[in-house]
Amino acid sequence: MRDLRRRALESNKTVSRKAQSRGVSTPNSRTPSAQSSRQSSRNVSRHPSDDEDDEDDDTRSVGTAWSNVSAEESGAGEDAESSRAPLQDVINELIDRKRSSVQGREDYLNAFVRMLTAHYQEEELGSKMDELLKVFAKSIRSETSEKETILALRATSLMAVTMLDDTIYPSMSSVVKRAAMDSSSFAVKTAAIRTLSACTIFGGAGDDSILEQMNFLMEIAMSDGAYVDAADDSDTVTAAIEEWGFLASHIEDLEVESEEAVEAFADQLESSETSVQVAAGENIALLYEKSYTPKEEDESDDEDNYNATDDDRSSTPSDDEDDNGAKLIKRYDAYHNTHRIIKQVEALAHISGRHINKKDKRSLHTNFTSILNTVINPRRGPQYSNAIDFETNQSYGSRKTVKFHRNSYMRVDRWWKWIRLAGMRRILGGGFIDHYFEGNRAILETLPVSLDVGSSGPAFSGGKSKSGKRGAGRVKGADVLGTSH
């Protein structure tokens, strides 16, 4: 394991047109904290922290940044003593708040976040978890400074993804949710939304609680942020939509929620903010994907309600199957008017005009071309390609591959995998690959996809690999360890 890890490491505003027509506004909204809120809400979502290839659109957005006090920037203003202190000393300083100052708490929270981001340290936290959660809750409630509050929220997320303890959600969800609702800082609201999602999935929430928080996030999205006094704040709305998708990827059956959710996200496709549009589009793709599930052993092919077109029949066998080889069949309509969704998504896939900068235009083209393929045929995963592999005489199929550092690759052939990967990387940032190789249980249980370490980039083939797995072909890092829907 150590050798494997060493090889890896060496190597604005958003207003939908419908909302504009409704005249949505919040005249009684609190005034966000001055320029610090805007500055600390910087969207660096298109700059992943795992040293991916900047030219590869597979590595686009992994979500809105937490803030300018994230672990990656922890060196700025950090006390020299706290930066050198071992984790146990940092924990002791955090627990002993009696003589601490705001600056001191910020420094030690910063050090704590940096250490937990860099490495998986479940054993080191041990019996201190409950005491630390009380410390974080106090900082979140008091909101003495924006920086301390955001760091405490981030520390809570890292605690959840490190400990995977069922007591975290019941003890922290209410205080975190209150911060999202009541804080006067947009940056705190955004961080609280991210933390609420992490606590829900990794802190012991059941399906009913997950659905409850999904409803909360949907209210934020449908109101363009006004539900939490953050009207038209792009970071808040993007966070709500992305985290809704992260939570939804853990719910097996979304038939009841699908119609209203697709309608809401279709509205957000008309947003003026690219991050909102892409997040909404990915959730639509997820909802269509989830309308198909593996065929049961006692079901016949006649029970599949999907009528394949000639183009669909050219798909690789693996696109029609889940990771265990079971055929995917349609269970319900994700939305009553798929033609409308196709029209909207297709327009974004081919959008043009000088009003959109080159980077956003490229992002829209790449992402919505991928989303369109799934809406048309929900069996198709991200970045589906109709191009023919002449060795197999089959189309390449889903070929989304994420690169980590210089020589590590992960193939992500389903939307639920991509959305979960993005969610994990929002929490762990550049430490994701370290946590992966160090055996972080949250990653291994949530994202059952292997990461390959090699000296060359991935190649694609629609045929069988040497291991006999269909669709694996020559894709390095594409072996899927398990399945979840």
Automatic annotation (TrEMBL):
Residue ranges with Basic and acidic residues bias: 1-10
Residues annotated as domain Interferon-related developmental regulator N-terminal: 67-375
Domain of life: Eukaryota
Compositionally biased tracts (Acidic residues): 296-305
Pfam family, any one: IFRD
Region spans: Disordered: 1-87, 291-326, 459-485
Family per record: Belongs to the IFRD family.
Name this protein carries in UniProt: Interferon-related developmental regulator N-terminal domain-containing protein
Originating species: Trichophyton interdigitale (strain MR816)
